[in-house]
Amino acid sequence: MQWQDIEHTLKSALGSGLKLGQAEAVSGGNINQAFKLHSNRGELFIKLNHVSCFDMFVQESAGLVAIAATNTIRTPNVIIANHTQHHAFLVLQYHEAKNPQPSDWQLAAEQLAAMHSASTMATVTGEPFGFSADNYIGSTPQPNSPTPSWSEFFAHQRIGYQLSLLKGQLQLPISDAEICQQIESILQVDPIQPSLLHGDLWRGNLMFDKHGPLLVDPACYIGDAEADIAMTDLFGGFPAAFYQAYRSIKAAPESLSLRHDIYNLYHLLNHATLFGGHYLDQAEQSVKRLIENGS
Question: Which residues form the signal peptide (predicted)?
């Protein structure tokens, strides 16, 4: 890895006074390499990938900025997203993680509820659901075309899109179009208040430092706040203190269970797209249960 090229690019963008020290490999998920960089301007966190992944970092930066703009819950400050000839990289403020206490989880829930309740500007076309640009869920493209109807948006740009990526890999009793139609019909029942979503809110994307919670690795869009809460319960769940605090502010809707199943189907389908294996079976069974329960 050519750190000299990265340092040169950073100095060009941030000033020649920047001096980088040793790079220490840290955990950064299974998509990017991640490093803690010592510098004369403090400790930095840098994600690295092939130069072809540059737009992933641009869109991640946009999501972090969108969350920070609500002034509700912290994110790492974005320093720069850039690339060399061979590498794309994202540089963020570094935060030393700590193990959270119940009070930390309570604060995270309160701040997330505030983010979900913050007034959100319509996307550039004036429609309430979607986002100002397409982005990514993991490394999978995530379409965000602005749409006036939440049920239409989620049925087609979330479930329909993922089904198109898995074409021929799932053995389902009805067509993709019929699945989308059924999901759209189910989601039409309840009116949805547009909220800024983190979009990929599993345990690994909520961290804590000595000052409290931070959201990282967003896949932001405007949608139903329950889509974020559904995902918190998908891979092991958050502690009870989190849900108690969140529900004290935002009550659970009547159709909670079925809506959460639909929202989590999106992430199961995406895991099937990314990793295959048992996720294909899990996604297939989830679709079949939704067909049965929603009919």
Answer: none
